[in-house]
Specification:
With 244 residues, this protein is mainly α. The chain has a domain of 62 residues. Helices cover 66% and strands 0% of the residues. The longest helix is centred in the first third of the chain and has 40 residues. It is elongated. It starts with a helix and ends in a 42-residue tail after the last helix.
Length: 244
């Protein structure tokens, strides 16, 4: 009997609770519906933003691949596009690093092209720009020795070129090669070792010695030719024959 009574009381309590819940929901129906709408809207916006970011990242990677496939020597204007892309993607993970690397590579490649051989000022500008960008990449890879090897080697080559042009010092060049030699298993170890051993021979300034032109003999005959002498008679008798 007592158990039946307790069950009845529990049923009554549940009924009261449900009635109160229904009444509360009825009074706040507009708020509940509004809250649900807000939640759905927030989720929809978040998904849209995520989709747009993914799409933009994919398009950026595609543009990067297309730009990297072009030749900056044939189209120097591509360098400005690479610089703009590097600035736009700055700090955006791997894509930011790769676009910065591409801008540095293009500046260096254009500086070393034959068309820049006679344009010292422009060549220096490109080399300095490439050096600054590679140094930035080296700073980003300071905690990753393997990733730092590429920028380090390119910095060494740039400093070597600047040394030949009188714009750097042997110590700067050696310091980069010596850093690469600290890792015997590095992919640039052999090249750095060879470059360091032959550095002095390859960077000796060319000595140009001025020489006077060789004396030339006159190529024209004298204005007055000497008088001709009567020619001696020439015997037509074959050798060994007796004249009659």
């Amino acid at each position: 009997m007592k158990q039946s009574r307790r069950q009845e009381l529990k049923t009554n309590e549940l009924s009261v609770f449900l009635q109160q819940l229904y009444a509360s929901a009825s009074r706040n129906a507009n708020y509940i519906i509004g809250g649900a709408v807000v939640v759905v809207a927030v989720l929809a916006i978040a998904l849209y933003v995520q989709h747009r970011r993914t799409q933009a990242r994919e398009m950026a990677w595609k543009s990067f691949q297309e730009l990297r496939a072009e030749s900056v020597v044939e189209k120097p204007e591509l360098l400005e596009q690479a610089r703009a892309m590097a600035e736009q993607q700055r700090g955006k993970g791997e894509l930011g690093y790769r676009t910065a690397e591409l801008a540095a590579d293009m500046a260096y490649e254009l500086a070393m092209s034959p068309k820049m051989a006679s344009e010292r000022a422009k060549r220096l500008e490109l080399l300095r720009d490439a050096r600054q960008r590679y140094q930035g990449l080296l700073d980003l890879a300071s905690d990753n020795p393997v990733m730092a090897e590429g920028p380090r080697y390119n910095l060494a080559k740039i400093e070597e070129t600047l040394l030949v042009m009188g714009e750097s010092t042997p110590d700067k060049v050696r310091s980069h090669y010596q850093e690469l030699l600290k890792n015997p298993h590095g992919r640039f170890y052999a090249m750095a070792d060879e470059a360091l051993r032959t550095l002095d021979d390859r960077t000796v300034p060319l000595k140009i010695v001025a020489t006077r032109p060789a004396d030339t003999q006159p190529t024209t005959a004298p204005a007055t030719a000497p008088a001709t002498q009567p020619s001696a008679a020439v015997s037509t008798t074959p050798a060994g024959a007796t004249a009659q």
